[in-house]
Amino acid sequence: MIKSILKPFLAISFLLLIFSYSLQDLSLIYPSYFPKPIYDFKKNPLKSSTVQLGRKLFYDPILSRDHTISCSSCHLSNQAFSHAGNHLSKGIEDGIGDRNSPAIFNLAWQKTFMWDGSVVNIDVQALAPINHPKEMGEDINVAVRRINKSKEYKTLFYKSFGDSLATSERLMKALSQFQLTIVSANSKYDKVKQGKETFTQSEKNGYQLFKQKCSSCHQEPLFSTYEFANNGLSYNAELKDYGKWNKTFEPTDKMMFKIPSLRNLAFTYPYMHDGRFQTLYEVLEHYEKGIEKSPTLSKQLEKPIVFTTKEKEDLLAFLATLSDSVLVSNEEYQKTK
C-alpha cells in the first residue's frame, strides 16, 4: 500500500511529499505542489541497488552493437538529459536517428514516451533505441548474453534481484528506475514557488504572458500536459514524419507530436521533434508567422500568437527561470567513476 508522509527537506528548506512503497528502500522526492506521479511504483518498487544498476547501464555502451553508443550518448546529464546542438539523435557507425532526442526528466509523471507516444510503459522504452538500426543497433537478447558474461554485472544484478542472472525484463526495469529518479524541481521558478526567491519585474510580466498564451498546453508545474498536439509545423518531407500518424494511420493523429516540457529550455536546444529551431526567438516567430493550417491543428493556434518585442523579452526572461542548474550538475545522475 502506498503511504504518504510529509518530511522536511533541509537542503532546500521547504516541505516535500515523499511517497514510500512497500519493498523499496528509496523514495521519489518531489515538491508538494507537484501532482501525484502516474507511474505505478508498486509494480517496480524503487531500490537504491537497482537505481545504481540502471545508472551503470545507462552510461555503458555495452548495450550497442559496436560498443560505442550508450543511452547517455543522446541524453547527457549536463544538458538536462538531451542532446543539445544536435537536430537528430546520433548512433552507431555515424547513423542518424529519426528525431531530436527528447530531454528525459520528470518521467514519473508521463504516461506515454517518444515524440509519437508509441511506447506506453517506461519499463520497456529502452528497447526502442537499443533495437533501432541507426541508434544502438543491437538485439536485446544479444546484449543480455553479453552482460551475463560480466562478473561486475553479475554482482550488481544479484544485489538488485536476489540472483545474478541478467534478463531483458530486469535490464529494462533497472534502466527505468534510474531514469524515474531524474526529477527537475530546483529552478528559480521552483524557488519562487517555495517563497525563497522573487521574480524580477520582467520575469513577472513574462509569467503573466505565459499564463495568458502558453499555459493551455504547457501547464504548471511540469510545464506540459504531456498530451499530443499539432502545433502548426510544416511537414518534414526528408524525415517523412507525421508524428502519431506514422504509427496509427488515423487521420486525427496526423502531425500530432507529444508536447514537451518547457523546463530546462536553456539546455535542450534545438527545439521541436526535428530540431528545426535553434533559438527560442525562432520558436516565437513560428507561432506568430509560421503556423501551417491543417485539419488537426490545435484550436489554440487557429489565430497567430503575437508578442511585441518587449513582451518577447519578458516571456523569455520567465522561461529562463525554468532552467534547473541543480539538475545538470547533480553527481547522483552522472556516470559513476
UniProtKB/TrEMBL annotation:
Predominant localisation class: periplasm
InterPro entries associated with the record: Cyt_c-like_dom, Cyt_c-like_dom_sf, Cytochrome_c_Peroxidase/MauG, Di-haem_cyt_c_peroxidsae, MauG/Cytc_peroxidase
Keyword Nucleotidyltransferase part of the UniProt annotation: no
Any Pfam family the entry gives: CCP_MauG
Compartments (UniProt record): Periplasm
Regions crossing the membrane: none
Alphabetic keyword roster: Heme, Iron, Metal-binding, Oxidoreductase, Periplasm, Peroxidase, Signal
GO MF: peroxidase activity
Domain Cytochrome c: residue ranges: 201-323
Name of the protein in its database record: Cytochrome-c peroxidase
UniProt lineage: Bacteria, Pseudomonadati, Bacteroidota, Flavobacteriia, Flavobacteriales
